[in-house]
């Protein structure tokens, strides 16, 4: 009986905490936070005084960047023991970040069986189901009885990460069903496991599916764990709901940050030069893009020289269209992130944004037109402004909604730098329409 | 033995699907998606032909807006039966959206016991732990033995939503511990439940805590379910990990959308006039804000009249600073969303952004300065541009990083319209610094 296991039942647990609770007074997640606040020397000291299992759990909870630095500063023997104690998926995540020679060094110190497993896991793309799955699962022969299964579980369950399910396989190792502890508990003792799962419609995922799709599937069906299979339906592992939370967190962060050209994996803890490297390329693209819009203004210099107020007003047009477009952009990117992609529905959403853009454009441009009329008494100037505003707000709605779709259709991340491209378009069209109209109507 | 329960073990389940599987060929989540694609008349038809339990599960999976419209178009008798069959937290979510008279009508048709429970749940703020918790949980007396507990569970577990845990209470109904089915399975049969939880450090949450904080806590500790208690530590319910996924989804969506002044709860399925109402106020504020920046330009009209190229170049300055600021903004908002708020760490992150802004500003403004020098041979113009660029990019970094913190400190949503405020500041400072410098150095 393991009364000393983690304080609250946890899904995700590298292993039971065998140590006396007083030795690990903190939950591994809290310990990880604590470690994050220490300088490197103290981090190493703290880890050394923990039982290896606790150290493994705590390091698994740290953020990747800190994790990598810390592990490099432990002696390889301890580091290897920590890797060995980690859940295989956490160990894989960690090993993936290390340079090849150090990874080989650590792996050579891990017992052969674990090493083989980790090497296999390392072959999967980290952004796929195979890259995030757990392999410490209970696999049962479907020809066992419920009674045998419970006895097997009693012996095996303590070493496993997902102790609420057992996966059934046939003689070819193909996955045939899933039973929960609860199913076993309420089943008649003599019933065969394969009888329990006869009517199951199994939901599985292939190992090469993108991890964001895996997250959507788990969220959609409210699953605790989703089995990962190969093309022959052989069970490889499972992705668990707690990993999905991390994926959803990461994916939301990615969208929001890449939209404006920040790094997908930046946090406020990232080193300054890491962030500079991620952002600088997009800032350079932004300079080039804004030079395009500036070139449009340049074409109208004679017009502006005659009537400098246009330079002030053109800014309102472009800014308003930019904001309209960004609203459409944000709604669209989130929709693509949350739902399964449905091409028809997605393009209908563009029509929807055009309608919203038209109504808001009509109201805003009408209001601005009237206001300008009252203030300047200049019918032509007010008309130019009104027409350019509604035109450019429609451009904003159209491109705000369609840029993520276009990026998606050409196989890119729908969020990547979308805000930068959008702004170029709304700026250029805004300047062109307003200055063009003004030149023609006011000075022509 | 319930071989007919849902295809894959699910955490979140209003009730067992008792009907023949052929009657509900779709998973409730898929049925909900199917219903979403039908027009209202067909939705009503589809729901009517489903067993009430399946109808309840499917409607619970629909999005709130569609859900509300559909339920209003069912006859109140059927609607009330569906509400009765739903998980209490789903039923509460649905009832909260209905107008008062219709809600009362439905509640009056629900059996007294369920009605009392729903009325209690409706008193909780929907954005708090109490508002998202489930109440169908297994509560056991801590003085039972493991053996008694398993027998109790075998009888009770089928009606409960969270069948993997049982919650232990003392004679005052205070929560004393949590045991999982697995704990019971591996326990000696005669051991008292309170012995099993003696060393537990219980993680709980008070009913009035914001749901986003609840989500952070569940994600932080990798919990499947978090008990919700009142101030006397009496158990009220639990928040489950699947609800957390929805909260994280919603919260990420909210941040991304409110940042640019779109509605927090908009989707591509929202009616056009709903989105117009949400966005128009912020577009109006954006007009006012961009008028401020336009006013700055207006002050420099004499300068621009003499040298219209400035109107083109000023746009590059403001745009570049805006992008720099948005990168800082996105990283900051995500950090505030994902982590527990730590004031000191947050303000240190502002310093970090200033460093990044300085390095990127130095490189970009240096590059632009050199390029302008080569193209225009005008040292003064190039210098104005370079100085204004680095100055405004620093302004962008400073305000991009601090606007979310300022909003947080004054008790507002850190994301709300932050991009709109930021742009006003970077535009105004960009125009002022560049046109001011140019007027002084080139024309002064």
Descriptive key words:
MgtE N-terminal fold, 444 residues, 20 helices, 65% helix, mainly alpha, disordered N terminus, homodimer, CBS-domain, 3 domains, Tetracycline Repressor, domain 2
What does this structure look like?
The structure is a homodimer of 444-residue chains. Chain A is mainly α. The first copy, chain A, folds into 3 domains: 103 residues, MgtE N-terminal fold; 110 residues, CBS-domain (Roll), CATH 3.10.580; 171 residues, Orthogonal Bundle (Tetracycline Repressor, domain 2), CATH 1.10.357.20. Chain A is 65% helix and 6% strand. Chain A is built from 20 helices and 6 strands. Chain A has a 3-stranded mixed β-sheet. In chain A, helix 10 links the parallel strand 1 and strand 2. Chains A and B meet through helix 10, strand 3, helix 11, helix 13 and helix 14 of A and helix 10, strand 3, helix 11, helix 13 and helix 14 of B.
Compose a concise summary of this entry.
The structure is a homodimer of 444-residue chains. With 444 residues, the first copy, chain A, is mainly alpha-helical.
Rg of chain A, rounded, reads 29 Å
Spatial gap, N to C terminus of chain A: 90 Å
What is the residue-mean pLDDT of chain A, rounded to a whole number?
A: 85
Assigned CATH class of the largest domain in chain A: Mainly Alpha
Provide the number of structural domains of chain A.
3
Oligomeric grouping of the chains: homodimer
